[in-house]
Amino acid sequence: MRPFLLLALAAPAFAAPAEPARVPVFERMLAFNLPADMVRANDRNNGTNILIEYVPKGQTLANWTRLVTIQAYRGLGRSPMKSGDIARQAFYPASCTSGPIYRDGGERILASGLKRSIIANGCASLPAGAYPKALKGAGEQNYIMMFRDADSIYTLNYAVRGPAFVGKAPPLSVEGGEAILRDIFGEVTLNPIAPAAR
Length: 198
What we know:
The chain is mainly beta. It has three helices and ten strands; from the N terminus they run αβββββαββββαβ. 11% of the residues lie in helices and 43% in strands. It has a seven-stranded antiparallel β-sheet with strand order 3-4-5-9-8-7-6, sandwiched between helices. The longest helix has 9 residues, at 83-91. Residues 1-13 have low confidence and may be disordered.
């Protein structure tokens, strides 16, 4: 997994208007509301890993203030590791030396049989080189919805970046990850794609 892509935390700004998005990830369809001002800045799929990133119009992967990320890892769902251990390995901001944040809200089994976890992570002040294109000295917060089925791991992330908040409370609630993700994305579903529609 690529922890540097999953690290993120900071500034506010929920974009209220949103548009329905449907994104195929392997044999499933991820459906959620995408903030209307977000545009796709990255789209990679090598058959085993998927990485899709959205930034506000006019921003880039180097200077974003808000970031929506979709990731999927084929085969990782078969790992004998517990989901909490996979999440910690992927999302704990190990490179953050000033105010690291990490909270795993635990795993729930949804009616569909999918396992889902909500994770919050971040850094009060990013060090240089925390991840490629990290903005040194910025504060970041990231809220991650992680799904697991028998084969794969899928994530939908919302990150915000702004001024450092060393010695202060983070701009957004660390405990409120589920509510924040619901406000941003609405109802999120990850349903199988019918074989005929693939």
